[in-house]
């Protein structure tokens, strides 16, 4: 592989992976904060308002990190992927431009109001500012997913004379079926992160025997939301996306499942190591015919295997794709188990005394981040070797005049900068958690 | 249609410079005019609720530029690769400075983050000025519409210049002084007592420098690129813009010396806006001149997106702009008035 291409890919992969650690929590927490505010207003209970304020502080820190790591993403379309931008800017400029105009302004303006304006606004107006932040963050998510969806499944475009693609139908771009499945799956994944984080911090307070009343609120809201969205994540959103994949990118599905040979009644591999050299799966544990059923709802349906596609159109890194996908699905299954057990204990009124379960909730915090990251790696690696599926190869999209050395220099720079950012973030969040939900905000601004 | 989008992008970038300019400028003089913790917190509170929203203008302007002129975006962003990456790092450092300064209580760390905030603000002001200088002077575009510019070559203006040469460094200094005054006048409107007096003094002191630099930069631009006068010759109505520059500059000193705080700040904003409009008017329809061969220059015609996309964009852009202006008016009204740390302020 051309080393400049590799550097530019790593550059984007690293910065976007780090970036998405933050938006997934803001997008996941935003609706939960609205829930807390609503409960506070309805029950006229100060504890819920304190809980909302506590999570708003975490949200605020997280949001700043999301913005400062997000600006490089927009820039990199031009700096590192200029040939792609020139080729596709006429189409995806629409969604990226709309994100700026609709989502960013909404989000940033009302976040300021939400964080600093509680004393100046009426309770109802403050509730509306929370809703506006929620809407802004979810709109932002939509436009980014719609951009990615166009790269996965290009629609609504036409070829221009200079070889670039230009918009031909705005509504096809916005109503891209891929965008809606991916959006549903992705946002549900974000809420899972928000719910697990909230339940985890709540469990921490109960185990610590400090701020227990707030801890119970966090665990209750987190577990209920976590249970609903863990199930939605599997069905219908995950299932729908998988079946769409079988239609639009069958080769990607084959690679994710490491199905080297197309066959009727294809098995679903639960665990096993794909071996690309011998085109087999080593040490597999599989469920016979399950892949056919899941994909086409018929046990004997034919599922296309990698052997039905030319090898130069296979995703290049099949093992990484396969493992990312299986980690995502495996963790998703475990999330359902954790949340179903928790909600059962909650219903029986035993959860707050079941220390073992609280420990599980506490320690589960990193795993939704891993699952969301693995999911995005699956989506992006699965599209390879294409940058825009069927239209532009990744190898043709990067900035040809930005040398590998310059790319490596800035990649290392970002790694250093992001290490510092990450440490500061953990330090600040840890301090908020130590301080607890009952405390008034620190002397900020 | 391309002309309309040229105006839209120019207006958004101008809005960004005027809005983020005052918090950048406030950062530049922060260490010098705000001497104790209370004063520093006052300045941070004055920009706290708005700086993030102001920076969103950069993102939104970038998004609109990408949408309307993808070729320009691709070419200029990859060509200015190294300085843009540094701008990104500076933006991050500045955000760290502002946000973490407010979060730590240890005076040593507060002092550290104060310096981070101040230095990053000053460097950003210089970088943005130098960027504008590059766009006016021209860059070594190839026939394929791409270029890669080293950070500096021999500091002279020629067919193969660096990001930094004497002309762009001068543009950086102009930007630094202009935004510093702008920030000082913003602090004046937001503060009372010693802080207010000191910020006012800075604005008064910098005014003659700004006047001098304005004249020098106009002459230097004419010397480096005599073509900038073409549009003015053909459309003398454009000469209103330099007159506006002069008028706002004098309104600024007049209002400052008469304690008309808001008027002075608005005049400074008008000065910045008219300087930028003047540059845009001189460049049009070129958006990125080539220093190599004028025929390689990127114009609004050869760098725009397809016609249908541009037409569709007008609809959502207008809707989005109306909403955005509405939010900003609302937020600035909520946080209007002087910053008072205790009691009724925010």
Question: Can you offer a commentary on this structure?
Answer:
The complex is a heterodimer of chains A (445) and B (346). Chain A is mainly alpha-helical and 445 residues long. Helix content of chain A is 71%, strand content 7%. Chain A has a domain at 228-390. With 346 residues, chain B is mainly α. Chain B has one domain (2-233, 282-334). Chain B has helices at residues 2-33, 37-47, 51-68, 70-79, 81-103, 107-137, 166-190, 193-224, 230-234, 240-257, 261-283, 300-303, 307-334, and strands at 286-288, 298-299. A two-stranded antiparallel sheet of chain B has the order 1-2. In chain B, helix 10 (240-257) packs antiparallel against helix 11 (261-283). At the A-B interface, helix 3, helix 4 and helix 14 of A face helix 2, helix 3, helix 4, helix 5 and helix 13 of B.
What is the number of beta strands of chain B? Answer: 2
Low-confidence stretches of chain A: none
How many domain units of chain B?
Answer: 1
User: Mean of the pLDDT scores of chain A?
Assistant: 92
Low-confidence stretches of chain B: 342-346
List the helices and strands and how they pair.
The complex is a heterodimer of chains A (445) and B (346).
Chain A lengths: L2 H18 L2 H21 L2 H34 L2 H35 L6 H30 L4 E3 L5 E3 L2 H5 L2 H32 L3 H37 L1 H7 L6 E2 L3 E8 L4 E8 L2 H7 L5 E2 L14 H30 L7 H9 L2 H18 L2 E3 L3 E2 L10 H32 L10
Antiparallel strand pairs in A: 1-2, 3-6, 4-5, 7-8
Chain B lengths: L1 H32 L3 H11 L3 H18 L1 H10 L1 H23 L3 H31 L28 H25 L2 H32 L5 H5 L5 H18 L3 H23 L2 E3 L9 E2 H4 L3 H28 L12
Antiparallel strand pairs in B: 1-2
Helix pairs in contact in B: 1-2, 1-3, 1-6, 1-7, 1-11, 3-4, 5-6, 6-7, 7-8, 7-11, 8-10, 10-11
């Amino acid at each position: 592989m051309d080393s400049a291409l590799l550097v530019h890919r790593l550059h984007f992969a690293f910065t976007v992976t780090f970036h998405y650690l933050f938006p997934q929590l803001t997008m996941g927490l935003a609706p939960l904060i609205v829930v807390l505010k609503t409960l506070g207003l309805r029950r006229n209970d100060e504890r819920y308002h304190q809980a909302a304020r506590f999570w708003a502080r975490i949200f605020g820190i997280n949001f700043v990190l999301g913005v400062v790591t997000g600006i490089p993403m927009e820039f990199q379309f031009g700096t590192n992927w200029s040939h792609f931008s020139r080729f596709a800017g006429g189409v995806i400029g629409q969604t990226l431009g709309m994100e700026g105009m609709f989502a960013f302004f909404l989000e940033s303006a009302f976040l300021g109001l939400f964080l600093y304006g509680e004393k100046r606004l009426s309770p109802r107006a403050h509730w509306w500012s929370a809703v506006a932040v929620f809407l802004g963050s979810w709109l932002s998510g939509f436009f980014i997913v719609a951009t990615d969806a166009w790269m996965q499944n290009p629609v609504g475009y036409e070829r221009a004379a200079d070889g670039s693609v230009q918009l031909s139908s705005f509504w096809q771009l916005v109503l891209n079926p891929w965008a809606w499945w991916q959006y549903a799956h992705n946002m549900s994944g974000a809420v899972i992160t928000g719910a697990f984080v909230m339940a985890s911090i709540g469990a921490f307070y109960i185990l610590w025997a400090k701020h227990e009343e707030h801890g119970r609120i966090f665990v209750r809201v987190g577990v209920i939301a976590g249970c609903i969205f863990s199930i939605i994540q599997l069905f219908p959103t995950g299932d729908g996306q998988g079946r769409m994949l079988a239609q639009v990118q069958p080769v990607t599905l084959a690679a994710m499942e490491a199905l080297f040979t197309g066959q009727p009644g294809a098995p679903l591999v639960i665990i096993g190591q794909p071996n690309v050299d011998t085109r087999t799966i080593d040490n597999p544990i599989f469920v016979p015919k399950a892949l056919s059923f899941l994909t086409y709802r018929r046990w004997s349906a034919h599922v296309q295997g990698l052997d039905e596609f030319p090898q130069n159109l296979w995703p290049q890194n099949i093992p990484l794709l396969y493992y990312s996908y299986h980690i995502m699905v495996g963790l998703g299954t475990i999330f359902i188990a954790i949340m179903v057990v928790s909600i059962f204990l909650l219903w029986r009124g035993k959860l707050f005394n079941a220390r073992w379960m609280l420990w599980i909730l506490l320690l589960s915090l990193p795993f939704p981040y891993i699952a969301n990251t693995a999911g995005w790696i699956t989506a992006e690696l699965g599209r390879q070797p294409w940058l825009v599926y069927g239209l532009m190869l990744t190898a043709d999209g990067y900035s040809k005049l930005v040398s590998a050395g310059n790319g490596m220099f800035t990649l290392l720079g970002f790694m250093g900068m992001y290490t510092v950012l990450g440490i500061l973030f953990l330090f600040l969040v840890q301090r908020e958690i130590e301080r607890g939900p009952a405390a008034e905000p620190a002397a900020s601004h | 249609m391309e002309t309309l989008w040229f105006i839209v992008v120019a207006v958004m970038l101008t809005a960004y410079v005027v809005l983020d300019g005052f918090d950048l400028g406030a950062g530049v003089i922060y260490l010098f005019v705000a001497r104790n913790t209370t004063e520093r917190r006052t300045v941070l509170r004055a920009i706290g609720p708005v700086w993030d929203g102001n920076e969103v203008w950069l993102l939104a302007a970038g998004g609109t530029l990408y949408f309307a002129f993808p070729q320009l975006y691709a070419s200029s962003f990859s060509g200015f690769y190294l300085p843009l990456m540094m701008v990104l790092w500076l933006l991050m450092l500045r955000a760290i400075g502002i946000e973490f300064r407010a979060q730590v209580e240890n005076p040593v760390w507060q002092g550290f983050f104060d310096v981070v905030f101040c230095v990053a603000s000053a460097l950003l002001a210089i970088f943005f000025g130098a960027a504008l200088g590059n766009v006016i002077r021209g860059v070594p575009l190839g026939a394929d519409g791409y270029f890669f510019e080293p950070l500096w070559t021999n500091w002279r203006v020629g067919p193969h210049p660096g990001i930094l040469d004497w002309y762009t460094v001068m543009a950086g200094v102009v930007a630094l002084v202009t935004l510093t005054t702008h920030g000082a006048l913003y602090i004046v409107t937001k503060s009372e007592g010693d802080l207010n007096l000191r910020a006012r003094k800075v604005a008064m002191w910098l005014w003659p420098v700004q006047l001098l630099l304005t004249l020098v930069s106009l002459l230097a631009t004419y010397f480096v690129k005599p073509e900038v006068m073409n549009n003015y010759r053909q459309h003398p109505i454009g000469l209103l813009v330099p007159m506006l520059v002069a008028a706002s500059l004098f309104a600024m000193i007049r209002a400052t010396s008469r304690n008309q705080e808001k008027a002075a700040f608005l005049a400074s904003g008008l000065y910045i806006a008219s300087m930028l409009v003047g540059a845009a008017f001189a460049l049009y329809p070129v958006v990125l001149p080539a220093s190599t061969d004028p025929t390689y220059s990127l114009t609004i015609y050869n760098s725009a997106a397809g016609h249908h996309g541009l037409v569709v964009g007008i609809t959502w852009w207008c809707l989005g702009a109306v909403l955005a202006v509405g939010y900003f008016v609302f937020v600035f009204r909520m946080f209007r008035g002087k910053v008072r740390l205790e009691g009724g302020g925010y």
